[in-house]
């Protein structure tokens, strides 16, 4: 069974930093790209960034580029989201996401999310 479990969320002051983790299991983690999304109250889920299976390449949304960094440790089956210079607009539930082939199609998998609140 594919599982994605996020951790590391919490309350942080504006300008602060936080690192989220997403532990994966149930599939060959090193074979698939991993993404992070977030959803703020009353807003649609927003793409933050993606990292390739090997970790060689990343891509970020303009809203977080230069502040957030995605990395992965394929030996630990874990993807990370390092967040810096946080502001209240970054308050959201953060999700990790992947797509895995299943029965000739691609199936979406989401974690349960972890809450990040940026407030003084």
State the total count of DSSP E strands.
11
Shape: globular
Look at the structure and give the mean pLDDT: 97
Portion of residues in beta strands equals: over 45%
**Computed Rg:** 14 Å
Helical content class: under 10%
What order do the helices and strands follow? EEEEEEEEEEE
**Main beta-sheet annotation:** 7 strands, mixed
What structural category characterises the helix and strand content?
mainly beta
Distance between the termini: 40 Å
Low-confidence stretches: none
* Tally of alpha and pi helices: 0
In short:
This protein has 120 residues and is mainly β.
Keyphrases for this structure?
single chain, 120 residues, mainly beta
Walk me through this protein's architecture.
With 120 residues, the chain is mainly β. Helices cover 0% and strands 54% of the residues. The protein contains no helices and 11 strands. It has strands spanning 3-7, 10-12, 18-25, 34-39, 46-51, 58-60, 68-73, 78-83, 92-102, 105-110, 114-118. The strands form 2 sheets. Strands 2, 4, 5, 6, 9, 10 and 11 form a 7-stranded mixed beta sheet that branches. The protein has a 4-stranded antiparallel beta sheet with strand order 1-3-8-7, with no helix packed on it. It is globular, with a radius of gyration of 14 Å.
């Amino acid at each position: 069974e594919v599982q994605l479990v996020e951790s590391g969320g919490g309350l942080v002051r504006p300008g602060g930093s936080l690192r989220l983790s997403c532990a994966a299991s149930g599939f060959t983690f090193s074979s698939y790209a991993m993404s992070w999304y977030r959803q703020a109250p009353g807003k649609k889920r927003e793409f933050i960034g993606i990292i390739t299976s090997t970790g060689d390449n990343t891509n970020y949304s303009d809203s977080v580029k230069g502040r957030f960094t995605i990395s992965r440790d394929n030996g630990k089956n874990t993807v990370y989201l390092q967040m810096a210079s946080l502001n209240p607009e970054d308050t959201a539930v953060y999700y990790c996401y992947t797509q895995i082939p299943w029965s000739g199609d691609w199936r979406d998998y989401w974690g349960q999310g972890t809450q990040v609140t940026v407030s003084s």
